Amino acid sequence: MILKNAFVLRNYSETPQKLDIKILNGKIEKIKKKIEEKNDEVVDLDNKLIIPGLVNTHTHAAMSVFRGVAEDLSFDTWFFKVIDPLESKLNEEIVYWTTLVSLMEMASNGIVAFCDMYMFEDVVAKAVADFGMKAVLTRGLVDIDGNGNGRLKETFKLLEKWHGFENRIYIGLGPHAPYTCSIDYLTEIAKISKDNDILVTMHLFENSWEKEKFNLKEILKTGIANNQLLAVHCVHIDDNDINLLFDYNVFISNNPSSNLKLGNGIAPITKMLSKGLNISFGTDGAASNNSLNVLFEARLSTLLQKKDNPENMKIEDVIKMLTTNGYKALKINGGEIKEGNYADFTILDLDNPSFLPIENIKNHLIHSNPKIFATMVNGKFIYFDGQFPTIDKKEVYKQFTISYRKVIGIEN
Amino acid sequence: MILKNAFVLRNYSETPQKLDIKILNGKIEKIKKKIEEKNDEVVDLDNKLIIPGLVNTHTHAAMSVFRGVAEDLSFDTWFFKVIDPLESKLNEEIVYWTTLVSLMEMASNGIVAFCDMYMFEDVVAKAVADFGMKAVLTRGLVDIDGNGNGRLKETFKLLEKWHGFENRIYIGLGPHAPYTCSIDYLTEIAKISKDNDILVTMHLFENSWEKEKFNLKEILKTGIANNQLLAVHCVHIDDNDINLLFDYNVFISNNPSSNLKLGNGIAPITKMLSKGLNISFGTDGAASNNSLNVLFEARLSTLLQKKDNPENMKIEDVIKMLTTNGYKALKINGGEIKEGNYADFTILDLDNPSFLPIENIKNHLIHSNPKIFATMVNGKFIYFDGQFPTIDKKEVYKQFTISYRKVIGIEN
User: Which of B291, B306, B358 minimises the CB distance to A367?
Assistant: First the structure.
């Protein structure tokens, strides 16, 4: 396949230029000013901009079923009183369909890859496989209820069945949080992470009371970050914690919408950036955001940091966080449009009044209203001009509604 | 014209229901479950949601020409060093085309009406007239350079030529800010406001140094709020100021993106709301936002207030701020879909994965990713399914680019 006539932003530090891209076996075979080859399918992308695919480094995809269900509540009430009890109603079928709706939303927002933490991850993997997206999937791990081992067994099954599937699906370890995982459990998880060379992702210091109750050094000394730890939220951390996160090479997923909406606060992103930490953006689940749009998170995070100093969070840094940093956080190759990389692209429509003057396009990517035209993963379109070529949209919507009614307890 | 098969949210406090709407002479003639009348043009809006048109209560439309031009700068450097000098290059022709681009952007974001403060407002009015939008236009008033009277004369000309045009264009008075207008000048403006029954709009306490230099009571005692004052920003105000704003019945335009991006801070919206002030949303100009999307402002403002308490800024209040409050702030009729009101509508596409489950649609309006399908002003579509029926888009884009190059000094 040859993508022709588009502007291409090869990576965060360059400026877009007109380039053709030839794709073979899911990878970028050639990038040149003009590629003229017969027998190749040609996709005309005139007046479009191709950028490295956007990455969402934290979500709970199936939680789209809870979108708008628990609003205007504090974190504790939201999670312990409403969401946690409703989650007991979920099953494999429901999670399959509600995950698909989130994949549709993410694809229509230009997201090519994401990191998930939830239950029934076997059907999450099936949804990702069917839809064509790229993902690191983790079964949420908790041992305070005495079933820590059962959840680890699920992880082993996932590893065997899905890890490396079509160079798109990878399995990781998902200890839920310091307040749901014992130190012993984290130590065991750390060992499994190292033995299998897979990443660990964990909610960390999202709430102020976590910071008071738990000690970051103790958590990190379990070895949880020895292979790779993607720590999510990190709102309530001080300068010492930032130094520790750096020393242990911890990757950070910044989820500003969810942090504000649940009243948890603003993560010290500028300080972490200047320390040199790898920060990327996550949407969190649709129950606390309520939208899976990583461009929105990038813009929000940028504005929050500029509040204290408008020179914070410069455009190229933010584009890097959305692309290069996201791939590194997921421990997968990508983030740059170059020969040999997988063809993971976010394609924007330049027929957009909010993208004028076109000369300042990199600023518009973050601060204006980007319109996503298409999303490609490993050389295949998963979203194209309002359509989802890999699935039956009507059937997904129908099954989602049935699922929602079952969970909420509405008679059909 | 009859709009058929859509869901209709008649006002912020109701829930959407399936209703047909008949429009005659720009106004809502009838709203019923089923309207079957021959000889009427029918627009099928199946799977769409009609809500009262969104209002943008503060912008400088022509500033789209400066979008992305001055980034990552403090307010003082941004305004005094970059924007202000560039503004001297503007002329009537440039302002006409760059305003049109902003009208396109606003219409594609569902905005039906806005309040503008800038120069060359005669051609801004022409652009609004040609495009079909609704607006209150104010010539920015400044007297520190000795030309206060000249600008007032422009206002009188605008009043005579445009006030009331097609029940769409209204003229107001736009004293720029306490630091550019003397107390005597404000007193004169107050008198003109009363004599002509037109509103006044002014930037107020956007920066911390304004609060230190100027006294709100002294400003209000000029009579500036006696007819109607729409005060913009109000970031640096204390509890006494809030009481004063209430006593003088001042309307507030909240512009959170611009306030964060220029490092000015967060306005005390929750306090102002609980006092009972009328607050609406403004985008500010595209040079400091950089996007004219009032839904984005509503969401951002809501998240910022929830940071301190997730129970702040409940959904219905926010929808009210976007609609009813906006009309009141602009001193025009509307904000509710009922017989006799002008047909000013924002029409959303419900074929949108981020709007599932559809049962919680009012939450999705603010917290998810609304997709605008069409925008109607006084019964005429100004945006419909990606198209702008009232203008020649290609010509506007072309003339915008020529204008941009003239302003920035790029040789063609």
Answer: B291
Q: CA nearest B105 in A: which residue?
A: A353
Chain B residues lying within 8 Å of A101, measured CB to CB: 353, 356
Residue type, A87: E
| pLDDT tens readout for residues A284-325 | 999 999 999 999 999 999 999 999 999 999 999 999 999 999
Q: Which two tokens stand for residue A296?
A: 């929105």
Q: Which residue does chain B place closest to A207, by CA atoms?
A: B307
| pLDDT tens digits for range A127-172 | 999 999 999 999 999 999 999 999 999 999 999 999 999 999 999 9
Considering the domain A54-329, what is its CATH architecture?
A: Alpha-Beta Barrel (3.20)
Task: Please tell me which residue of chain A has the smallest CA distance to B361.
Answer: A68
| In chain A, domain spans | 2-52+341-384, 54-329
State the virtual CA torsion across B31, B35, B38, B44 in degrees, nearest 10. Answer: 90
Which residue of B59, B63, B71 is the best one to mutate when testing the A interface, meaning the one whose CB has the most A CBs within 10 A? B71
Minimal Cβ distance to A291: which of B73, B307, B354: B354
- For A254-295, give the DSSP string: E-HHHHHHTT-----HHHHHHHT--EEE----TTSS----HH
> Do A2-52+341-384 and A54-329 fold alike per CATH?
no
The CATH number of the domain covering residues in B2-52+341-384: 2.30.40.10
Of residues B67, B100, B299, B322, the one with CA closest to residue A367: B67
Cβ distance A263 to B308 less than 8 Å, yes or no, reads yes
Omega prior to B357 cis, within 30 of 0: yes
